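Journal club prep — side note

Before the paper discussion, L.F. wants everyone to see what a predicted structure for a comparable chain looks like in token form. Sequence:
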Amino acid sequence: MTAEQIRRSALKQFARLGYHGASLSQIAAEVGIRKQSIATYYSSKESLYLAVCKDAFQEYLAFMEQVQQHADLKKSEDKLLWVLKQNIQYRLEHADFTAFLNHLIHFPPDFLRAHIISKIQWMEEQSAVIYRELFLEGMANGEISMHPVEELLAAYYCIIDGMSVQMKLYEREQLDRKLASIWGIFWKGLKTSR
């Protein structure tokens, strides 16, 4: 249980302060152990950071699998929008994960940059499986006009990433209005003209 408590505390520290700003002493104090006790579970700050990365990615991918199983809507537009809204809701409800992910993307420690970028790309590819299926299904049933699926994925990720920035700037009501506007334009460019 203590290893998990350490990782949870570390997630908060890394989310707020980044790798270099986070303190093993503060993480230990929050858990209620001595700093040296962290070494029982993690040999270094780096190994703790990588364990937190692994946890965050696994939890997010587990969430994405749940989302996929519950997207039982009929129309492609409704499915894609629902998955997008669930993604935004997850990020809002898991503020530490969102802040940690932002630090990973924008300010990875230089000595871990290549490793972290490869892990983020791996995570993106795992979630892209779900999105790709939705786009292909929409094209197959004639709701989405024919486009290279990788281009659709790139545009969809831009909405997700853009909304993660908007979350920091706007309250929920404004965020919902912005999403509705963005989605309207996005879907207009995707849908077939029947």
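L.F.'s comment for the group: The chain has a mean pLDDT of 91. Keep this in mind when we get to the figures.
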